[in-house]
Amino acid sequence: SLWDSIWWSLVTVTTVGYGDIVPKTSVGRLIGFGVMISGVFLVSLMTATIASVFVSRKIKEGKGLEDIHDRDHIVICGWNEHGFNVIRALFNQLKPKVPVVVLLNELPREEVDVIIHRFPEINFKFVRGNFTQEEILDRANAWYARAAIVLADTSGAHTLDKADERTLFACLAIESRAPKVKTCAELLHAENKDHLRRAGVDEITVRGEPNST
């Protein structure tokens, strides 16, 4: 019957082969031979395709190229030697329910791994790129974050002499697109505080000043 043919085709293609239904005629066996051969290729192709999708996603994630879809997370833009203290303070303040922390910078992957391994209790995600660009902030889903912390960045080839300028650009981009996101910024020079205040930054810290907001 038609149902018997469908049943036999499925168990043959999936290489289960119960043997409860088998072709009797020469033509049927010839068709069965073709189904068996095509089944092997079909299953192999499906397995390889699924595996390649997961491998590609893992590679993109490792390189910081995967888009972030979390919400109510914390985005840390940039990195410098004080970044560890920032993460430690976040953990102590928000535990036991620490949200996802997205690291957005241009560090090499091995240095990012050092940060992640330093805080095994935190669920980190990594996005590589220049955080002053809106498309990079979009990949980090910064518009739906709980907070964005912008550090005086020295990741990649960036130097401290342009750090305040890049901090201002990032804060302007975030505040213009998502004014409800709480923004915290680190400055090197106190004379730039007024620029960040006009941009709507919630908290401002000047390096070297203990209580600057």
Briefly, what is this?
This protein has helices spanning 2-13, 26-62, 83-94, 109-118, 134-139, 163-177, 193-199; strands at residues 74-77, 101-105, 124-128, 147-150, 182-187, 203-206. The protein is of the alpha/beta class and 213 residues long.
Content-based structural category? alpha/beta
What value does the Rg take, in angstroms?
Answer: 27 Å
Rounded to the nearest angstrom, the distance between the terminal CA atoms is 79 Å
What's the overall average pLDDT, rounded?
86
Q: What does this 3D model show about the protein?
A:
With 213 residues, this protein is of the alpha/beta class. Helices cover 46% and strands 13% of the residues. Strand 2, helix 4 and strand 3 form a beta-alpha-beta unit. The mean pLDDT is 86.
Topology:
Elements (H helix, E strand, L loop, with lengths): L1 H12 L12 H37 L11 E4 L5 H12 L6 E5 L3 H10 L5 E5 L5 H6 L7 E4 L12 H15 L4 E6 L5 H7 L3 E4 L7
Parallel strand pairs: 1-2, 1-4, 2-3, 4-5, 5-6
Quick tags:
213 residues, alpha/beta, 6-stranded parallel sheet, 7 helices
